[in-house]
Amino acid sequence: MAMALLDQIRSIFDGDPGVRKVADDPVLSAELLMLFRMILADGSVSESEMVVFRRICKEAFGIAETSIDSVIEYLNDFGYETNGSQAIALFRDLDAERRKLLARHMAEIAKADSKLAESEVKLLRRTLDLLDISPVDVVKPES
């Protein structure tokens, strides 16, 4: 209880720790923006897509559940400064596994609502091309 109170007080003075983590890591910011673009690719935001996004934030990036709404707000406020090509450019120099992970996360979100829209397929295909990743690598289980 006391630790939670201290965390709340610290976040008032220091800002949200999840937002700080995202703001301090351009690659993480770019990845979250790409995931958000996938959520928006079909023109609507489904609850199932947001559930997958939140799970990825928590499990893959260690962003606390209590920070995710603030992270989303941060991305909405500052994400307009980065377009998809700029975000992808940050990934080109990363190792293949990290690029494959981005593609897998995007595919997870695209499939979350049980409907794969053509716009989602196009965004994923274009991302795979730019990252030099085979579609086979997206469907293969992680090694």
From TrEMBL:
Superkingdom to which the source organism belongs: Bacteria
Domain Co-chaperone DjlA N-terminal: start-end pairs: 33-138
Family annotation (InterPro entries): DjlA_N (IPR007791), TerB-like (IPR029024)
Residues making up the signal peptide according to the UniProt record: none
Pfam families on file: TerB
CDD domains to which the protein is assigned, alphabetical: terB_like
SUPFAM superfamilies: TerB-like
Protein's UniProt name: TerB family tellurite resistance protein
Native source organism of the sequence: Mesorhizobium australafricanum
